[in-house]
Amino acid sequence: MRILVVDDNPDIRVLLVSILQRAEYEVIEASDGISVQTWVKDTQPDLTILDLLMPELDGWETLKRLKSDPSSKDIPVIISSALSDYDDLELARSMGAIDYIPKPWSNDDLLSRIRWATTARKKSS
What we know:
By secondary structure, this protein is an alpha/beta fold. The chain is 46% helix and 18% strand. The protein has one domain (2-124): Response regulator (Rossmann fold), CATH 3.40.50.2300. The chain has five helices and five strands; from the N terminus they run E-H-E-H-E-H-E-H-E-H.
């Protein structure tokens, strides 16, 4: 399974990549929302983990673009953000995110949510 990790913080990306690779996922990294559409089209990830607070093109606009593009609208997106307000969770879900995991997260919780998201996608296909 291929996962696209989108976060402007290099430390968070390194941590996510390490966790996911140890769990035997293939990982692609993006450091900003601008390059996400290209990565999605080129690599066809099975799941995207998306930060919301990024410069230039934030995660909200990135999510909007992913879900409005026919080539990426069915790829599950898990939001991983320091924003933890209930309204943020509801907005992310209303925009098409499958899950929302506030930072900091535990490795077990992150992997559990990934397994759930990919299982939910397979059942809906």
